[in-house]
Specification:
The complex is a heterodimer of chains A (about 220) and B (about 240).
Chain A (H helix, E strand, L loop, with lengths): L1 H45 L3 H16 L2 H15 L6 H26 L3 H9 L4 H31 L11 H12 L2 H32 L2
Helix pairs in contact in A: 1-2, 1-4, 1-6, 1-7, 1-8, 2-4, 3-4, 4-6, 5-6, 6-8, 7-8
Chain B lengths: L3 E12 L2 E12 L3 E5 L6 H8 L7 E6 L2 E2 L7 H5 L2 E4 L11 H12 L4 H14 L15 H13 L5 E5 L7 H16 L3 E5 L3 H7 L2 E6 L2 E6 L1 H6 L4 H10 L1
Parallel strand pairs in B: 3-8, 3-9, 6-7, 7-8
Antiparallel strand pairs in B: 1-2, 1-4, 4-5, 9-10
Helix pairs in contact in B: 3-4, 3-5, 5-6
The chains are: A mainly alpha (about 220), B alpha/beta (about 240).
């Protein structure tokens, strides 16, 4: 087994490296655009307009309630038909991943903002500071300390969950495993290699996040 | 009377099914120091918080400087800029230095140039003995210092009245005196003050008028001498016998 692992790594390392690149790319792009979309959704959910609350609440409930794999299938099947321009399978999966993470990130942002002590809002109001300034100068700088670590966790979560995209063979790390095992007929050593890479990436991120969180806490 | 700064008419406030204020009529004159005392749960804080509409009254009207602020379409921010408020838990902004805490609202809302706002903030800090703390963050301040900062922050807007909501209740005993002295100074300089307090000695010494609240109404009001030495209402006597 051990020698199989070494041998497969020596021969196919470029396939795994390619997979890692795509996994990292998918995760970064998903969390980045998911955050932009998530901010929008969070503010819609907190707005005073009832219809916006209802729509965004439904959006969040559906996306958090339905399995991610189901959502990937849905967008993979539906988007090419629904869009006037052509979309590759990978594009469809990227859209699905962004939409999925936007719902989780919207909740992270909303919770982060609402966790800021109510007294802060009252103090700002009592000074006659208008709402937009209050958000910008008082609430958001404090909320960001709650939000950033949670988005870091979301990043780790997405890094693992992009593996579901291998169902559609779109080239991330789990797809690399499928490629290698087809070529070698040795699924288990290849799987162990992929597992080591995933755990190595999430460990590294967890450690970095821990350092970052301690820094944030120190500036409190 | 032309020197009425705040006028409250038949103010009522419900929280869900609970009626916390059951119809309050009051006038606060310019330069007056009004203490609100009474047992907890009597509606003192809610009354105070209605004055700058941090709580929206269920019914009733409030006038500030002759303008009805409970009317529709009023920009309450503009009125709040002239009504300072100091809270039990200080509510200073932890993400800003002492100086930034004080100058934020004047710079943003009164468009005062930064240098001028900081000069004024320094003068105010000196008056409460905190000029050396100007670049500290609130986490490095004691409770008493935080509360003095909160008072200075309110003063920087040059308010016509300051509302104090139990300003010493969350302080360690040795910090209380310093904060009360700052409030006393303000009173002696002619600032209009409405203060909810459990410090009976302070209420007695500094107030022009004392309101005794119980069960959402003002049961009795009068000068400190009238309330503390010769209370008329049963509930006032009972309350004072417990706290004095």
């Amino acid at each position: 087994m051990f020698y199989d692992i070494i041998a497969i790594w020596q021969k196919y390392s470029y396939v795994f490296v390619e997979g890692v690149k795509w996994t990292v790319f998918l995760t970064v792009i998903t969390v980045f655009f998911g955050t932009i979309l998530g901010v929008l959704i969070a503010f819609m959910k907190m707005s005073r307009v009832k219809i916006l609350n209802a729509i965004t609440a439904l959006y969040i409930e559906i996306i958090r309630g339905a399995p991610m794999l189901l959502q990937l299938y849905f967008f993979w099947l539906w988007l090419p038909k629904a869009m006037p321009f052509s979309m590759s399978e990978r594009d469809c999966i990227i859209v699905a991943l962004i939409i999925n993470s936007s719902a989780y990130i919207a909740e992270i942002i909303r919770a982060g903002i609402q966790a800021v002590d109510k007294g802060q809002t009252e103090a700002a109001k009592s000074l006659g500071i208008r709402n937009s300034y209050m958000m910008r100068y008082v609430i958001l700088p404090q909320a960001i300390k709650n939000i950033l670590p949670a988005i870091g966790n979301q990043f780790i979560f997405m890094l693992k969950n992009t593996s579901l995209a291998s169902t559609f063979f779109i080239g991330e790390l789990m797809t690399s495993w499928r490629t290698v095992q087809t070529a070698t007929y040795k699924p288990i050593p290849a799987l162990i290699i992929v597992g080591i890479i995933y755990v190595g990436m999430t460990w590294t991120l967890t450690i970095l996040l821990g350092i970052f969180e301690r820094r944030l806490a120190a500036s409190d | 009377m032309t020197d009425v700064l705040l006028k409250v008419e038949n103010l009522k406030k419900n929280f869900g099914g609970l009626q916390v204020l059951k119809g309050i009529d009051q006038k606060v004159r310019m330069g007056e120091v009004v203490s609100v005392i009474g047992p907890s749960g009597s509606g003192k804080s809610t009354f105070l918080r209605c004055l700058n509409l941090l709580e929206t009254p269920t019914s009733g009207k409030i006038w500030f400087e002759g303008q009805e602020i409970t009317a529709k379409g009023v920009n309450i921010d503009l009125h709040r800029q002239k009504m300072g408020m100091v809270f039990q838990h200080f509510n200073v902004f932890p993400n800003m230095t002492v100086l930034q805490n004080i100058t934020l609202a004047p710079i943003l809302e009164k468009k005062i140039p930064k240098a001028q706002a900081e000069q004024k903030a320094m003068d105010l800090l000196k008056s409460v003995g905190m000029e050396d703390k100007r670049n500290e963050y609130p986490r490095r301040l004691s409770g008493g210092q935080k509360q003095r900062l909160a008072i200075v922050r309110a003063l920087a807007m040059e308010p016509k009245v300051i509302l104090f909501d139990e300003p010493t209740s969350a302080l360690d005993p040795e910090m209380v005196k310093g904060v009360l002295n700052v409030i006393k100074d303000l009173a002696s300089q002619g600032m209009t003050i409405v203060i909810v307090t459990h410090e009976m000695g302070f209420a007695r010494e500094v107030s022009d008028r004392v309101l005794f609240m119980v069960d959402g109404v003002i049961a009795e009001e009068g000068t400190p001498a009238e309330i503390f030495e010769n209370p008329q209402h049963e509930r006032t006597k009972e309350f004072l016998s417990q706290v004095l």
